[in-house]
Each structure stands twice: as structure tokens, then as C-alpha cells.
Specification:
Blueprint (H helix, E strand, L loop, with lengths): L34 H13 L5 E5 L6 H13 L21 H7 L6 E4 L15 H5 L1 H6 L8 E6 L6 H12 L5 E7 L7 H5 L2 E4 L5 H11 L5 H10 L4 H9 L2 H13 L6 H12 L4 H23 L12 H10 L3 H20 L4 H17 L1
Parallel strand pairs: 1-4, 1-5, 2-3, 3-4
Helix pairs in contact: 8-9, 11-13, 12-16, 13-14, 13-15, 15-16
Length: 374
């Protein structure tokens, strides 16, 4: 049975954690925090108005693929064929159903998944290519093996290159009878406008902080209790991102950044250079990117606060509200927008131009110090 959205104590596995700690989306029995989206799909399946193509969007790590496979299991088990008594509030099926195990194991003949594949060197591609999408053409030409639905899930649809996207568009424009294409996308805006216009859209929301914190308690029982809610907030309600941040020491990194910011415009030079040295080392590119993302997001929150001081602040560490208030008082809105844009450009150039990460970190904190001093 699916767990209730409003009962964080009852929450079970979330699909976007590593496989060793949570089931993969295709094997996950529960959907968390997005019951309204599930109901809309269940209602469409029950009354026979299910569109041939759906676009499920939202931030990474919140259960989009889980919902896609949940719908697929429901249909492949007979949902939408009047075998479920017209129930229109859930897509859940019993885990003992054969369809559940076959979808979980990737062995259901009427379900095909497209995701990032491997290149000729055996390395994972950075985009979905046209050959991946062309697998769908012969798949949909065949009749359903069990007389029901033929379903394709394109997981990471925004990673399709131009040729792959055009091939997917052709399929969506001329869908075979009783076929379904489900596109899962972190950033639907990257998709072709024509693809977006031909799909029914569902946008999933991040989980509540308390829900994500309960999941962290389940999967990281050794984590200090007082760290769970701050990490959930830092992840923006994405349990998948929270897990990745925990694995790389993200909460400690954020606290270190806030400690430096609290001393602005007189940051400790030794502490600042120690951080820049660490983030500039070989193998620390993900940590450096995360640190720059933290700063960019924090300054974006500062801009929102400067424009509307009554905006609620989703702070992570003690004293952060006072720090935001102090920074906002040191400049007008235009001033902080300029600082945010400068730092965001530095962050993006560090990736695209392969700049010296240590110098980028020093430049970013230098820009903050100069802004507060001014």
C-alpha cells in the first residue's frame, strides 16, 4: 500500500537514494509527497481519458521516475481496463502482483525504458542519442504481449540531443493505439516546445522538510539527529540530493561557508585559503561546484529578501537570518543583484572554461567581501 503524504512517520523507501540503501524507481512501492499528481493520473486511467504522452517534471530526486513506473505497473496489471473497479485515487498495486516483480526486474515485455546508454568505449554517454529513441519504433509496432498497453519511459528526457528529440516528437505526434510514452525530466524547459505542447504535464513538488528528514533517519541512522532537518532544508526537499550532500559532507561545507560569510568584510584569510586549497585539489570538482551552488543560491535568497523583507527564510544554520538581514542592510536591491550575477557567472565559467578552481573560490568570496565593505 502507498504511504500517506501527511504521515512522515510512516514514510518508507525513497527511490532516488543509491541502490544499496533504497529501491530503484522501477522497484519502489511508495510515492511520497505528490498524491495530487497521482490522483490525476489514476482518474484519467479510470475514466479512459489517459493521454498518449505525459511529461513529468520537477527537481531531481523527488520521485518523478517512481511515479512513471507506478503508472506503468498500474496499467500493465490491468488498471484502466475496468479491472480496478474504477478506483481513481491511487495507482498502487499489490507487491505480490506479477506485474510488480516483472517491472521491478526490467523483464516486462510491454515496457521499454530509454535512458543514458553507453558509448563504444563502454562509458556512459552525456546525452540520449537518436539510436536510443529509435528502439521505440519497432517496440510500438508490435502488439502488446498481454493484450493491453505498450509503455515507454524516457528517463532524463531533457538529455535527448536534437535528433533524438525529433525522433521522439514524431512518435508522440502519431501514437499507436493503447500506447503510452512517459517523459521524465528535471528541466522540462530544455525540451523542444513542440514536445512540451503535445504532452500532458505533471509537475511534482519537493518533499516537505519533515518528510525528507524522516527518510534521512531511516537511511542514515548514524547521522546526528540535529543534522537531519538542516540537511533536508539544504537539499530543497529532495531526498536524493540530501543523500548525495551527506556523502560529500555537504552540511559541514555549508556551515564552513556561513562561518566565513559571518565575518565579512573581515573574513579569516587562513580559513578562506584553506577552503580554497581544498576545493581546488584534484578530485574535488563536485565539492567545489556544490560550494559555488550554495553561494549562488544563498545570494539569490538574499536578493528575494532585499526585495521583500516579509519573505519567509528557509535557513539552515543558527544565525543565518541575522546574517541575511545584515547583508541586506549594506546595499540596495540592485547592488545585490549585481553581486549575485557576478558570482553566478564566475561559477558557470569555472565549469565551461576549466578555470583554476582555487582562484575562482577566492574571487567569489572576494566579491562578497567587497560588496559588504561597500
Amino acid at each position: 500500500m502507498a504511504v500517506r503524504d501527511d504521515d512522515p512517520v510512516a514514510l518508507r523507501e525513497h527511490p532516488d537514494f543509491p541502490e544499496s540503501q533504497a529501491p530503484a524507481p522501477r522497484a519502489n512501492a511508495d510515492l511520497l509527497g505528490n498524491a495530487e499528481a497521482e490522483r490525476s493520473l489514476a482518474q484519467a486511467a479510470a475514466d479512459g481519458t489517459l493521454a498518449g504522452a505525459w511529461l513529468i517534471g520537477g527537481p531531481e530526486g523527488i520521485g518523478k521516475a517512481t511515479l512513471a513506473y507506478r503508472l506503468a505497473r498500474h496499467l500493465l496489471a490491468g488498471g484502466g481496463n475496468d479491472l480496478f473497479g474504477g478506483a481513481a485515487d491511487t495507482l498502487a498495486i499489490d507487491e505480490a502482483e506479477p506485474a510488480f516483480a516483472r517491472v521491478a526486474g526490467g523483464s516486462h515485455g510491454d515496457l521499454l525504458t530509454v535512458e543514458l546508454g553507453l558509448n563504444k568505449q563502454g562509458k556512459k554517454r552525456t546525452e540520449i542519442v537518436v539510436e536510443d529513441i529509435r528502439r521505440l519504433e519497432p517496440f510500438f509496432r508490435q502488439s502488446a504481449g498481454e493484450g493491453g498497453w505498450r509503455i515507454a519511459v524516457i528517463d532524463g528526457a531533457d538529455l535527448m540531443n536534437r535528433n533524438a528529440a525529433n525522433a521522439a516528437l514524431k512518435l508522440i505526434e502519431e501514437p499507436p493505439r493503447q500506447s503510452l510514452v512517459i517523459l521524465v525530466s528535471h528541466t522540462p524547459a530544455k525540451l523542444l516546445p513542440t514536445i512540451r505542447s503535445r504532452c500532458r504535464k505533471l509537475n511534482l513538488r519537493p518533499l516537505k522538510d519533515e518528510q525528507a528528514a524522516v527518510l534521512l533517519e531511516r537511511f542514515l541512522p548514524d547521522m546526528a539527529e540535529e543534522d537531519r532537518l538542516p540537511l533536508a532544508r539544504l537539499s530543497g526537499g529532495s531526498p536524493g540530493r540530501a543523500m548525495r550532500l551527506e556523502q560529500m559532507g555537504g552540511l559541514d561545507l555549508y556551515r564552513e561557508i556561513m562561518a566565513l560569510m559571518a565575518d565579512a568584510p573581515h573574513m579569516d584569510p587562513a580559513a578562506l585559503h584553506a577552503l580554497a586549497d581544498r576545493l581546488g585539489r584534484s578530485g574535488q570538482a563536485p565539492a567545489c561546484r556544490t560550494a559555488l551552488d550554495f553561494l549562488s543560491a544563498w545570494l539569490a535568497g538574499l536578493v528575494r529578501y532585499a526585495s521583500r523583507p516579509d519573505t519567509p527564510l528557509n535557513t539552515v544554520v543558527t544565525g543565518e537570518e541575522a546574517l541575511i538581514s545584515r547583508f541586506a542592510a549594506r546595499g540596495n536591491l540592485e547592488h545585490w543583484v549585481d553581486v549575485w550575477e557576478k558570482i553566478t557567472r564566475l561559477r558557470d565559467r569555472a565549469d565551461s572554461l576549466n578555470l583554476d578552481r582555487k582562484q575562482v573560490v577566492l574571487a567569489v568570496f572576494g566579491a562578497v567581501e567587497a560588496a559588504v565593505r561597500t
